[in-house]
Specification:
A 4-stranded parallel beta sheet has the order 2-1-3-4, with helices on both faces. Helix 2 (39-55) links the parallel strand 1 (20-25) and strand 2. The longest helix is centred in the last third of the chain and has 24 residues, at 217-240. The protein is an alpha/beta fold. It has one domain: Creatininase (Rossmann fold). It starts with 7 loop residues before the first helix and ends with a helix. It has helices at residues 8-14, 39-55, 82-99, 114-128, 144-154, 164-173, 196-202, 217-240; strands at 20-25, 58-59, 103-108, 134-139. 45% of the residues lie in helices and 8% in strands. Helix 2 (39-55) crosses helix 6, helix 2 (39-55) crosses helix 8 and helix 5 runs antiparallel to helix 8.
């Protein structure tokens, strides 16, 4: 069930048997030579929809802009300040809680969102009192089935950002927008968060140790199937807790 295509009466009926909701969160940022700028939002949304289809859970619209300050050296990137993003997350949770939702399951597609979401959850817990609210954050690319499949398909070339796995997933979801770009494997990279100019100096084409030239839409289907199966079970257990 998609919240955006429900009526208020349908949501009220849903709350009669479940207080869980899946909230996909992404980012609008550069993803290397062949990665779509909407990659993080596309991935989170597709996975969340898959969870909803598998479990009957309600799925909120994807939040498409995240904390991407370190990618601002690349045209097309959009970012929210951490304080702004924290307020957005907090307000979304508290709005839904007012209607009776109590289990908030975040499917995240962007590493820069992690500390902000964690802070927003802490604020909500601090303000909610004893209302029985529970929040979980799941970073899809870190799930064991995803890590194992990426290792099988790409070995050391998966990388950290603009990864072959996430580009593959977008190729599966949007096959009409596959970009073919010749590239060599990027050198190994460590995590780096600076301003946009410093990031681009260190990673001139936007990749962090990755070789998304290896991406294939058929790989993306495997990633989507694997992570949806994993997270659907996880969500069901969480929503019933």
């Amino acid at each position: 069930m998609q919240l955006a295509t429900c009526t208020w009466a349908e949501v009220e009926s849903y709350l009669g048997h479940s207080t869980g909701i899946v909230l996909p969160i992404g980012s609008t940022e550069q993803h290397g030579p062949n990665g779509l700028i909407g990659t993080d939002a596309i991935c989170a949304d597709a996975i969340a929809r898959g969870i909803g289809d598998a479990t009957g859970g309600l799925v909120a619209p994807v939040l498409p802009v995240g904390m991407a300050q370190h990618h601002m050296g690349f045209p097309g990137t959009m970012t929210l300040r951490p304080s702004t993003l924290l307020s957005v997350f907090r307000d979304c949770i508290t709005s839904l809680a007012q209607h009776g939702f109590r289990r908030f399951y975040f499917v995240n597609g962007h590493g820069g969102n992690i500390p902000v979401v964690q802070s927003a959850i802490a604020e909500v817990y601090g303000e909610s009192g004893d209302r029985g609210l529970l929040c979980e954050l799941r970073n899809w690319w870190l799930r064991p089935p995803v890590v194992a499949l990426a290792r099988e398909l790409y070995g050391e070339h998966e990388g950290i950002h603009a990864t072959a796995s996430e580009v593959s997933l977008t190729q599966h979801v949007f096959p009409d927008y596959i970009k073919r770009v010749d590239m060599e494997p990027a050198p190994p990279a460590a995590m780096f968060f600076g301003d946009g100019a410093a990031f681009r100096r260190r990673f001139p084409d936007g990749r962090m140790g990755s070789h998304p030239g290896l991406s294939r839409p058929e790989h993306g289907k495997r990633f989507l199937d694997a992570v949806v199966a994993d997270l659907a079970k996880d969500y069901e257990a969480f929503a019933a807790s």
